[in-house]
Specification:
alpha/beta, 23% helix, 11 helices, globular, single chain
Amino acid sequence: MKPAIFSIAFLLSISLFSGNLSAQTLPTQPNIVFILADDLGWTDLGCYGNKFNETPNIDKLAESGLRFTQAYAACPVCSPTRASIMTGKYPARLQLTNYIKGERTDENSPVLPANWKPYLEGKETTLPELLKTKGYTTGMVGKWHLGNDKGQNPWEQGFNYSRMIGKNGLDYYNYSIFMDSYENEFTDTGKEYLTDKLTEYGVEFIQQNNSEKPFFLYLAYSAPHVFIVPRGDKLRKYFFKYGKSEEKFNPYYAAMMESLDDGVGQIMETLKANGLLENTLVIFTSDNGGLGLDELGPIPTNLAPLRKWKGHIYEGGTRVPAIFSWPGKLTAGKTTENYFSTTDYLPTFCDLTGISEIPKNVDGKSLIPLLLQPEKEQDAERPLFWHYPHFSNQLGRPAGSVRVDDFKLVELYETGTLELYNLKEDISESNNLSKKMKVKTQEMYKMLTDWRKSVNAQMPVPNPDYQPSKKR
């Protein structure tokens, strides 16, 4: 673990906030259950307005806690976002800017993808390593996708208990799970649905750690990532619902969502049965936006009114659902429009657990004040940044962006084109204001370029075979 460099203020001494609770009532060493869905879109949950998918357990989580309408993944694809959660750093700073094995190019583009690192370096200090310094038992279940070489796997990156998806990670049958090492492997033979198996491991971890020692569970489901393979016994009702709505939805995707929701329900029931609910912060979110094109099957979801989807720097690729629930500690049933990034989880958990020293160059900041006063506008002038210098398998192209307050600037790296949007008035990013607001555009562009220099962001490189006469 790298030595700590600077201190973060411990904010739990804030005075009264909404309701009758105070920050002093928050335990300094709660259990933390962090549930991460894979490719779950902003519009896919009932509590976010979806009328087709049935997600009662996740909706109940929102009813008991705080729901964010403007939470963001640090990247529009999975591995970089997961790295941001583990380190509190922007993917550009880590130079892990694409999903592992993502090597798509376009011969008709003037640029090639930026150089990058297809792994999280073992020298990085991770969230579980930090929590272990405070006596936490740490568990990782599900999709890791941050590297498999020595020093990069979860059991060497701070987790006491690891159940990492191994072979056939895109399938929901005939997969394998590595248990604390590559030598100990569970292999499914088409009998145990992967989402259910991951839930089983999550329940096992909680039950094994039902003691006075605090625990951190990182439960990273592979659902609803393609393949779109649901359990057959969950499909019937969605077929009958199909065609009865003006909006078209994918019944197979809905059935996968139900299994994910059932898993969340089982985790919550396990916490309740073991008397852990009131001392456990539960977070549910996604690693990036949902799919908007056919990929290994039909289009699974519809992210309207957001623009684009996974792999794109626009809102459909980066805006994600996020729910914080802590019965009796956080005010229930609240919704907030305050925005934040996945880089903020690590400093938030450090703040909450009394870790006063965090690694150098952490980009996130603690969300504790926001959690305690969700109705209050906070950090409106805080910039959030994105950098995706790649070509995604969902046809996203190299681009970067910055958001400050309601404004978002997008730079298209192939052409240098700048776009400016007011997200409060134009959530679909359909009205480009860059020509009408030239001063604002240049101000935010400078902010974006200065940030890229500060984190040593790797940019796309010229394509030596590019022929300008060819059209994309």
